Amino acid sequence: MSSIASAEHQEQHSLQAASGELLYLGDEHLASAASLLFQAYRDDPLFQRIFVFEKEGYEQRLRAAIREELMFFKTSEQPMYGWFDGDTLEGVVCLTRAGAEWAPQRVWHWRLRMLLTAGFVSTRQMLEKERVIAEAMPVNDYHMLSFIAVHPRYQQQGLGALLVKAADNILSEVPESAGIAVFATRPEYARFFRQRGYVELRDVQVDSIRGQLLFHSRDDLG
């Protein structure tokens, strides 16, 4: 596999494999990416808590929030890539850039749009999640693995490991970043990342949801 270009260039450099390639997500891909991420995160306990699963309109709030997140990633040039087999989007990986000036507080236009689409409570809890995780991190400059998902139809084919490798390649091209952090809300998620070189930093609680904060150090890149 060849390394991919950093998202700042927004070029469609691809990570070649026998069954597909990794491409930077352009405007034409965002709707498909949002649909895939919705399927992946609809049953995630943290998102169910943030977007109030038991209240009517949960799916609409989650869909709206994912769309806003992807638009923010696009406009702020955060690394976001999709795994394609031809024209079919099979997986998505999105990271926040190391040392991004807006983290953990979001810029005002994002906050306003989130308030209008997802509501005050969900927006506040999204910001609180980012604050809690940032305070738990032992370093300041790092990447956060915000989204990683494989379409259910294409799971169990090794695509998740390819997306993790793609994140490593992004990290390798940003020397200021100490590594990649991820917040795992389920034991099987944490196990998946540990098997790929991530180490557990600590347990973290966001509202009533406990999870594991894991980190893959630049020093451990293969």
TrEMBL record:
SUPFAM superfamilies: Acyl-CoA N-acyltransferases (Nat). It comes from Aliidiomarina sanyensis. One of its GO terms (molecular function) is acyltransferase activity, transferring groups other than amino-acyl groups. Residues 60-219 form the N-acetyltransferase domain. Keywords: Transferase. This is GNAT family N-acetyltransferase. It comes from the Bacteria. It holds the Pfam family Acetyltransf_7. Gene3D superfamilies: 3.40.630.30. The lineage of its organism: Bacteria, Pseudomonadati, Pseudomonadota, Gammaproteobacteria, Alteromonadales.
